[in-house]
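Notes, p. 3: input format for complexes.
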Amino acid sequence: MRTIVSLPGDGIGKVVLPEAIRVLEAAGFKANYVHGDIGWEFWCKEGNALPDRTIKLLKEHKIGLFGAITSKPKDDAVNELSPELKDKGYVYFSPIVGLRQHFNLDICIRPCKAFKGNPLNFIRKDGKGGYEEPAVDAVVFRQNTEGMYGGIEWTNPPKVVRDALETHPKMKKFADVKSEDMAISTRIVSRQATERIFRAAFDYAKKFGYKNVTVCEKPNVLRETSGMYLKIARQIAKEYPGIDLWDTNIDAQMMWLTKNPEDYGVLVAENMFGDIISDGFAGLVGGLGFACSANIGDEVAVFEPTHGSAPKYENLNPSIVNPIAMILSACMMLDHIGENEKATKIRKAIADVVEEGKVKTYDMMKLRGGSKAIEQGAATTQKMTDAIIEKL
Ligand code: NAI
Ligand code: MG
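Output follows (392 residues plus NAI):
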């Protein structure tokens, strides 16, 4: 039997993860779940939100199902550290970023597929006095480890960095700016990682029958980094006849998002652009309650909803948050380990519940979150899960 590392984390991560496991079990997926410590509690108690024992578990079992974590600003992080750890040089790092870096989880997949009947779906005017609901089915492949979020940045850059940059003619316009008045964030991409993300995207398109892959970058301005993306995309596309390669600029793509989102299949972008475009598409299909994701490396893969720990709702009893994003993330895990049939079954059950429209969490009713939502007719988290299990 397969072992899955269960990483509930903080806040509503602790609420939605057990719901996903209930659905997995109801779908007939048998596994051992081992608990991995991660999140704010471990920062406070141990000065490390991602303890080594958790890394070890993932290294051994390869597959993680992750809820969400809480990150707080620098000052809070220092203040909430347990007294005996204070002033010992502990620095807070986000454990999910830590996981992505430690295991080189460089391929981030974010499917954004509209469920028919979801009241949160994007609609547009049809020009005949009515409305139409485009069938959005886009999957964003975001490079997860490099680019603009690679973390190579400085305020007041050291002299060697400054000197190196001065070799570029465009630095002339900063000649009068003192280093202490200068901040630099880099956007470094590598051929290896770029090839990997495109290969993964094309493989996915082939496996799931998508007809096009779109590089969503800005090569007219970011001539080097976006330029490399486009060039590699064209090379790799040749290996996949039958799948069209399109390219769009990130800014124009954000505009087309609401004009013709149904035209796009698989999209590929660097870290920051992928972050932006995936949130954009997620907004068309129900937002955070529906946004699932996978972080995939060579060895280890971690599946998680896009949302965070939603601290406002963590102590609500009964819970009101939508478990679907977490359950869909568990489906991505099933796809990854070759259990496609069970994943399809669960997605169908979710689709049935949404289309029937009898059971809706507060977000699907466009209600304000809070304990009143239940009186106003919203389903609890558990009730939504029950409805999905019933359809199974
Ligand atoms: P968030 O995603 O936790 O919540 C934003 C809002 O979205 C919530 O207040 C709620 O209205 C709604 N929401 C989120 N999940 C929902 C669900 N399943 N069903 C219905 N509504 C839902 O983002 P926020 O408030 O910016 O951050 C809260 C904490 O989460 C912070 O500490 C942040 O650092 C952390 N975070 C962690 C992430 C992760 O674990 N990967 C990702 C994003 C934020
Ligand atoms: Mg984001």
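The chain is about 40% helix and 20% strand.
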